[in-house]
Structure formats: C-alpha cells, structure tokens
Amino acid sequence: MELLQNLLGLDAGLTVWTVLKIVAIVAPMMIAVAYLTLAERKVIGWIQLRIGPNRVGPAGLLQPLADGVKLLMKEIILPSASNKSLFLIGPVLSIMPALVAWAVVPFTDHLVLANVDASLLFVMAITSMGVYGVIVAGWASNSKYAFIGAMRSAAQIVSYEIAMGCALVGVLMVSSSLNLVAIVQQQAHGIAGGSLFSWNWLPLFPMFIVYLISGVAETNRAPFDVAEGESEIVAGFHVEYSGMAFAVFFLAEYANMILIAAMTSIMFLGGWLSPFPASWGFLGASGFGWLAAKMAFVLYCFLWFRATFPRYRYDQIMRLGWKVFIPVTLVWLIVLGAWMMSPLTLWH
Amino acid sequence: MNFETVVFYVLSAILVLAGLRVITAKNPVHAALFLVLAFFTSAGLWLLMQAEFLAITLVLVYVGAVMVLFLFVVMMLDVNFEQLREGFWRNLPMAGTVALIMVGEMALILMSPEAKLGSYHAAAPLAADASNVKELGRQLYTTYLLPFELASVVLLVGMVAAIALTMRKRKDNKTVNPGLQVKVRRNDRVRIVKMDAEKPAKPETGDAAEQQA
After folding, report:
1. Closest Cα in chain A, distance from residue B78 (Å)
2. B133 and chain A: CB distance < 8 Å anywhere?
3. Is the CB of B3 inside 8 Å of chain A's CB atoms?
4. DSSP characters for A137-206?
5. What's the rounded Cα separation, in Å, for the pair A343 and A348?
6. pLDDT digits (tens, 9 = 90+) for B3-19
7. Mean pLDDT across the stretch A255-281?
8. What is the Cα A89 distance to its own chain's centre?
9. Which chain B positions have a beta carbon within 8 Å of A131's beta carbon?
10. Mutate to test the interface with A, among B1, B67, B71 (most CBs of A within 10 A)
11. Is there a contact between A121 and B57 if contact means CB atoms under 8 Å apart?
C-alpha cells in the first residue's frame, strides 16, 4: 500500500474518491440509457397511435430490465470466418468513447469530474473515435452487409464531424474559451441579461440547427441511419452480433445520443441556467434540473425525428453535409466575426 | 520513481511496440489499427509534457479523421499478401544497407554537440492557470503569422489540386439536380384521369373467367 501510494504520488483517498465519482456518473447514465430505449418505444408508439410496451411491470416500466436480462442470456455467436480478436474489440471501441467523454461534461458550475481547460476539444476528440467501433466491427464480421454498413457509417461520420466542428467554432468565438463551464457561464451575460434570449441558440441560430442535425447524423439515428438501413442491408455493421455484444452497440448508440443532447444543451441552450429571471424563486434558480430538462427536450427531438422523417438517400446525406451545412457554418462564421467587431456586438 | 515516470515508461513501451507492429503486422488492417494505437499513445505522452492542446488535436485530426480514411482505403484494397512478401530476402541486403546508413546519419546528427540534446532539460512546470490554447493562438497570430498563413495557403492549393486531379466529368452520369428535384410539383409527375367505372364484359367460357381473375 505504501509503495502504491509512493508510486501514485498522491493521496490514495483521492483515487478512491475519483473512482466513486466515476461510478456516480456512469451508473445513472446506464439507467438513463435503459429508460431512453423505453421512452423511444413509448413516444414513437404514441406518435403512431399505438400503446407501446405495456406488459412488463406497471405501464411497461420494467421493460428495459426484461430486455437486459434477455440479452444477457443470449449466446454470443462468433462467425467462424470472422477476425476473432477484432470482432470482440469492436463493441468495446464503440462504447469506450461514449463513456469517456462524460469525464469533462459539467452538470453545474462545480459539479464536474475533470474541469480541464480544453474540455470542448476533448469531447470532440473522444467522440471522433467512436467511428472505429463501427468500422472494426463491420470489417471483422467478414460479411458483405456489415462491411457496406461500416463503410457508409465511416464516410457519414467523418463528413458530419467537419460541419459539427465548424458549428462549434462559432461557440468558441463568442465565449472565447474551450472550457464547457466557461461556455455556459458566458451565456448568462449579454443584452438580454441571462434570460432565454441571451443563450447561444439565438445569435448562433444557423449553427445551432447545423449542430443538432449533425448530432443526429453522427449518432447514426434516423433519418440518417443508412449504416443500419434495415430495408437494404439488414442491420448494417452489427448484423453478425448477438446477445450482449449487440447490446453493447445499442448502449453506445444511446449513450452517444445522451452525450449529444448534453453538449447541445450546454453549448446552445444555456446548460444549467434557468430561462426565468432569478426573482422567480424555485423556477428562477439554475441547477442540474434545468440541464436535465433541456437534455430531455433534445432527446425527445431525436425520437420525434425518427418517427417523422423517412430515411435519407445516401447521396442526399453527403450533399447535405458537404454542400449545405459546411458552407452555411462558414458564412455564419464570417458574419459572426464581423458582428463581434462591430459596435452592435452582444459580447464583450 | 514517481507516477509520471511510470506512466511515461508504460506509454513509451506501448508506443514502441505499436510502432513495431505497424511494420511487422501481416494484415494491413491490423497495421493501420496499430498506427492508431501509436498516435493515441503519443498523444498521451504529449499530455504528460503539458501540451494538452497538441495532444487533443493529434487525436482529433489523426485518429479521428486521417486514420479513418486510411482504414477505409486499406479495408477495400484486395492485397495479395504472399505476392507482397515474395522478394523479401532478395531485397534485404540492399534495403538493410540503406536502413543502416539512415540510422548512422540520424545518430550522427543527434549525438553531435550542435544538437544540444545533452543539455536538454525538462520543460519548466506551467502555472496552474496557464492556457496552452491562448499561448498557441498568440504565437500563431503574432510571431508566426506569415508562416502560418503560408502553410494554410499551401494546404488550400493542395486541396484544390487533389479535387481538380480526381474530378472527371462522366457522360453517363445520372445525377439529378437537387434544386430541380425539390421544385417538382405533383402535376409534373402524376396525371389524374377521371373516367367512369366500367363493367367487365360477361365471361363466356371458364377459360376467359380465369384470365380475368
């Protein structure tokens, strides 16, 4: 123990405390993921005038648990012609970035695991690694459908990452910081004085829209889900996966959705700030509750999109990313730069 | 031995191993994935040197974008591994000589007193509120403005050249102008014809009835 303490060069208590904090973030996340799947089935059910799952537990509330147990009991089949080690690493590579990125996501002014200087850049770098899970899984499966899915997904994610990055440059310009806490705190100032209208979504409206839609594309969600287009390539990159290995991909997809929702709320919707004036007491106080509410709204939009829009054709996806989103963000960057330099600037 | 030293040696060991596997792996996809690992561990080493902006950018650009496209290409290649390895022993003496010369040259440069590697000290620890990003931005846009702008122009020219070289106009291209597609109205595509309902002719034989059904 003394050797270990010497080696670590810091208080062993701090290490244990950090591990506990990590558990305190990951465990509720997993529960949120489980209930997001239920919410998705319920919401889409209601939109389509169905009831959705309602058999397991009161109002179907235990359905995610039943799904989890079922997936745990299923056999994991290793295709005999697959590349065994890469086949097993695939799901790991896909869930790892989805969880690691949460290390720097702040929940309130002080509630953050690691308040690092360049946290926004960290989130972007880590989420950009998620594509490896998809590519490696698709290639290692040694199946045509899986491979086509992986190729589609890789091209799509790389294209939309550029649009996403360009949208974030606008956020960086107005907040002059890469730190997520500072980005939220900056949104509390401005002419509209900390209300709904001083948040970044209004002055950066084109970027907000581009970021939101690119987020849907990045997570391979409908209407951008050509990577697992059921009608053409069965299930895309995870067609050969079963049981828990499949469930891990599923977890990663939903964890990424929640992450994108959190990032959208933090960067454009004022994070944990309250939309009401501080004099409104309970409603005016900023806190984690507001962040959760905003994340829930963005997540609801994700489900709503899925129930509303038909799947994009592949060339249309590429056109939207390269020929519409990137020019829109580039033009708005120039407008924003001029705006910030002009006497009409909202930011000081 | 403190924690940082341990981390340094672990990361270096992984980096060297991954680098070795990049050139020894039989399967090019494995080699590319080991290259990803090498980039990632070197980003970790840069983090140890308190260059967090560079480290994160390395992951973002090389791991997140460049290597993805690299893998993309490598996976789609149909390489015959046996054929690739055919001339290994025949070419070894020549290649080995070139490699040895290169190692000697590098050693000469690194060991010469001019390189001043002997007097290389660890970077002074930064103040807790020092910002890597701010300092980099300041340097890039003041001291190194001209080289920075030049580099970006060179990159832009490279980009334009790559597009110009690969763009071919095909005659049998079936691309539709998306603007025209969006502008399409129902009347351009469907014509609804009103006509009175017709009674089918009375079947005469069983054969005809079957055909009608």
Report:
1. 13
2. yes
3. yes
4. HHHHTT-HHHHHHHHHHHHHHHHHHHHHHHHHHHHHHHH--S-HHHHHHHTT-STTTTSGGGSTTTTTHH
5. 11
6. 788 888 999 999 999 99
7. 85
8. 21
9. 64, 68
10. B71
11. yes
Chain B contact set for A117 (CB, 8 A): 52, 131-133
Whether the per-residue pLDDT at A193 is higher than 80: the answer is no
Residue A282, φ and ψ in degrees, nearest 5: -55, -45
- Percent of chain A at pLDDT exceeding 90: 16
Distance of CA A158 to the CA centre of its chain: 15
Nearest CA to CA, how far is B179 from chain A (Å)? 12
Is residue A304 a contact partner of residue A218, using CB atoms and an 8 Å limit?
A: no
Report CA A315 to chain centroid distance, whole Å: 24
Which tokens go with B144?
Answer: 């190194």
A41, A307 Cβ separation under 8 angstroms? no
pLDDT exceeds 90 at position A228: no
- Assess contact for A134 and A227: CB atoms under 8 A: yes
Higher pLDDT: A36 or A312? It is A36
Q: Which two tokens stand for residue B104?
A: 């000697």
The percent of residues in chain B predicted with pLDDT above 90, rounded, is 23
